[in-house]
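Thought: the user asked what NAD-dependent protein deacylase looks like in 3D. I have the sequence; next I should run the structure tool and report back without guessing.
Action: structure_tool
Action Input:
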Amino acid sequence: MRIVVLTGAGISAESGVPTFRDADGLWEGHRVEDVATPEAFDHQPGVVHRFYDERRSALHAVEPNPAHRALARLEEALGDNLLVVTQNIDDLHERGGSTRVLHMHGELRSALCRGCGGRSPWDGHLAHLPPCPACGEAELRPDVVWFGEVPYEMDRIQTTLDRTDLFVSIGTSGAVYPAAGFVQYAGRRGARTLELNLMPSEGTHLFDEARHGPASELVPAWVD
Ligand SMILES: CC(C)NC(=O)[C@H](Cc1c[nH]c2ccccc12)NC(=O)[C@H](CCCC/N=C(/NCCC(=O)O)S[C@H]1O[C@H](COP(=O)(O)OP(=O)(O)OC[C@H]2O[C@@H](n3cnc4c(N)ncnc43)[C@H](O)[C@@H]2O)[C@@H](O)[C@H]1O)NC(=O)OCc1ccccc1
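Observation:
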């Protein structure tokens, strides 16, 4: 059985990582276009750096939850027949024990140099414009995919979806593309599709089956 699991902010909600669209969601106080677009970074890099520096520091105060750990157990059983494609930029899948994780929207704990294109593991702040460890230029940006930018590893995602038997979506509202289109893509290629979410998402009607409730309960129940 080959499985692709897509995760969103909902899988990290019970760990204390704010989601995007829920009441006190991350975007409150920050208009999306003010902090998560290349244009915003060109016009006000300080605001954007502080936005991601805050989220990067907050990672130290959160831990993986039973949903992350259950996916790590599933990986032990399936090995290369499982791929976790996450929209999340936190590191909770890896800290939960998963290794086969593809961050299609990037990672907080990585810095991307606009000078040399190099990537550097990053745990501190970027607002003070530190030099790139590879080329020395002060051209580092958060290694995340902003609106209007092409998500990472789309080819690998597509080829893996082409041959998957089961597509499972966990903790995502289905509001952001191309991730929101994966269920239809996989379904058209014969995969069974399952939604595990706190409540029906914008795409819930597109799934063969949907179970609603907290990820920390639904995911272990599905895995074990
Ligand atoms: C707003 C939307 C309409 N706009 C887009 O989709 C745009 C434009 C667009 C492209 N195609 C379209 C087609 C139609 C319309 C618009 C578009 N897309 C883009 O710009 C993308 C780039 C988008 C990426 C932007 N970067 C992010 N993140 C990184 C930064 C950062 O994190 O700061 S997006 C960011 O928002 C999204 C948030 O969604 P969720 O994770 O689902 O979170 P949300 O809060 O919305 O929902 C949480 C869910 O969890 C549930 N939940 C809550 N608690 C729990 C719980 N305890 N248990 C279980 N579930 C729970 C809730 O009920 C809820 O359903 C995630 O993707 C997240 O990564 N780029 C692109 O299209 O390039 C071209 C292209 C395309 C294909 C191939 C080649 C080229």
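Thought: the tool returned a structure. Summarizing for the user.
Final Answer: Structure for NAD-dependent protein deacylase predicted. Strands lie at 3-7, 82-86, 101-103, 106-113, 119-121, 140-144, 166-170, 192-197, 209-212. The chain has a mean pLDDT of 95.
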